[in-house]
């Protein structure tokens, strides 16, 4: 799967929370189906854990700047929560 393409499709057709605080809130509310975390995320628990509750965490092999670029955004993204994947196959990522 082309991760950058899947991220862009999820952002366009699904519901995605971007940013550390929104990601934490979506996970706490159990609304997220997948968390994607960059290597440079300041939250150590998100960087090292495999899941929060039953929500899997995908560890993006790049910095927050790299993740932002992969999403087509002009800013760094350290963490994001996939609430609804839309027509993306993003939930098939191996965590």
Give the SSE map.
Blueprint lengths: L2 H11 L1 E4 L1 H9 L5 E5 L5 H5 L2 E2 L2 E6 L3 H7 L8 E6 L11
Parallel strand pairs: 2-4
Antiparallel strand pairs: 1-5, 2-5, 3-4
Task: List the defining traits of the structure above.
60s Ribosomal Protein L30, Chain: A, globular, 95 residues, five-stranded mixed sheet, 5 strands, single chain, 4 helices, 34% helix, alpha+beta
Précis, in short:
The protein is an alpha+beta fold and 95 residues long. It has helices at 3-13, 20-28, 44-48, 64-70, and strands spanning 15-18, 34-38, 51-52, 55-60, 79-84.
Kindly describe this structure:
29% of the residues are buried. This protein has a five-stranded mixed sheet, with helices on both faces. It has one domain: 2-Layer Sandwich (60s Ribosomal Protein L30, Chain: A). It starts with a helix and ends in an 11-residue tail after the last strand. The protein is of the alpha+beta class. The mean pLDDT is 94. The protein is globular and about 25 Å long. The protein has helices spanning 3-13, 20-28, 44-48, 64-70, and strands at residues 15-18, 34-38, 51-52, 55-60, 79-84. It is built from four helices and five strands, in the order H-E-H-E-H-E-E-H-E. The longest helix is centred in the first third of the chain and has 11 residues, at 3-13.
């Amino acid at each position: 799967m082309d991760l950058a393409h899947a991220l862009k499709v999820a952002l366009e057709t699904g519901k995605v929370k971007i940013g550390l605080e929104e990601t934490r809130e979506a996970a706490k509310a159990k609304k997220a189906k997948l968390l994607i975390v960059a290597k440079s995320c300041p939250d150590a628990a998100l960087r090292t854990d495999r899941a929060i509750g039953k929500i899997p965490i995908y560890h993006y092999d790049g910095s927050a700047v790299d993740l932002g670029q992969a999403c087509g955004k002009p800013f760094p993204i350290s963490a994001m929560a996939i609430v609804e994947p839309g027509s993306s196959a993003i939930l098939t990522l191996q965590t």
